[in-house]
Amino acid sequence: MDRIKEFIGIGIVCSVGLATFIFVVSLISRGYEALTTKKVDLLLANSTPYEIQFVLAYPKDNKNVKTQGWYSLDPGEIWEKSEVKFPRNVEASFYVFAKTKDHEFVRWLHSSDIPKGKEPAIYWESLDLSHVISNKAMDFVSRPGELPEATGRIQKVGMTRILPSETNSKVFSYVFAPPIKFPNLYPKSSKLSHVAASCLEAKSLAQSLHRQKRFLSTWHGQTTFPFHLGLRIDDKNGPFKKGVAVYPGYNSLPQGEPMPFQPGDILVSLDLSEVYSNWDVGSILYDHATDHQYGGIDEAIPYKVVRNGKLYSGYTTYWFDYKYWSEKPEAPTEGGTLLWSAWDGVSFGFGEQTAAAVTKGLEGLANGLSWLASKLDDTSSPNYIRGPSYKELKWRFTQAEAMRRQWHGESYKIGEFGSYLVSLPRAGVKAFGGKTASRFASSTAGRMSFEIAENIAWSLTDGSPVRTDQELINELRLTIPIAAVGSIVPGVFKKLIK
After folding, report:
1. How far apart are CA 248 and CA 246, in angstroms?
2. pTM of the model
3. What are phi and psi of 222, to 5 degrees?
4. What is the pLDDT of residue 299?
5. Does residue 189 share a domain with residue 49?
6. pLDDT digits over 428-460, tens only?
7. Residues 317/466, Cβ–Cβ less than 8 Å
């Protein structure tokens, strides 16, 4: 036992000695490093709406320069490189050469400024340092510290020197500023908070410009557009500055709610995306109206406006443009609207859900018959139908119903009223058909509950997406008593006649 204790003691002493040795060596190493090297931080910020690629150079010693790149910077991105080491006898310095990456985007944005035959790119360079870098036919590397192979095109470039911060000599910073076309993206000062604000604006503008480019590639030159907000849009600031002035062309929204916009409102956000131009509005609206996963007429569109210097938010919805859709095969007719509204009434306001379920049911039946036929005839294989999902079908029927309501509102109301008149007398007659008092009471209560439930379902499913909870409650307070009384009145008349 004593020998074991002796070995344990020796082990503890050795461990303590080894830890002390490592600690002392570490202190000596750190002290030596502190005496022979210095550390600085580097910060680069992209306050432009372009994706930028850059090469970084800094001295390894008094004779050699280390080059790193290519790196990529997204619009609004801030890039940091911490504790870059320099020998004590070497002046800490950084040089950068950068240019835009997306030639197609730059050509689209600056087509009037680019001379014919010139490469559509914007450069950040100067003659502070002349250096040779590898280009490798636009095959750029974005992993830190990795260089492209020196087998591609070699070019000599002028690199810009990055200066230390005015407030901290150990921090070197450089902001890739945009051309004069985007003066609102220039940082107010070199403070990090101002640089970060400019980068945030650059990121937002880049998203908007790409959205505008996508929209114009499809709709430029078209005289009609599928949807509108009932607004006239005046883009006074141009497509590079946030906000467009709007002027309502209607007093109310499609389903009767008051128009939430006022003349001269500055629309700054729509469907959670920032607005810079009328092309933005069109692109955002089109994406919302045609997205069966998250959008459509059933989903209210959030917006933000600046009114008299204050920010207001709310919800709106859209119209189906008659000039555009009237030329399409899916344009609704008066007769079709009457039939659909009657169907909606019979299904208690679940017209689109029921239609989608019936369609998927018929699809399943057809697939079942195809499978059965393939089993009876071994030489054939099932020919299955792969139709849209139930969710997409429901979305399509909902869009079609909204279009009918907007274009043929009176016919839709007639169809709804007609189906309601059919169901009420039937309910009332059955309620008073009971021969005993108990059957009479239970039947009356049952039919009244049935009509009230139908009325609630109809109000919930067919209401406007921008309707508030209070507006729904007010509507139910008005219509539920009518449904309850209306369900038994026909039965009373039948009893009186008998």
Report:
1. 7
2. 0.70
3. -75, 140
4. 84
5. yes
6. 444 445 455 554 455 555 555 555 555 555 555
7. yes
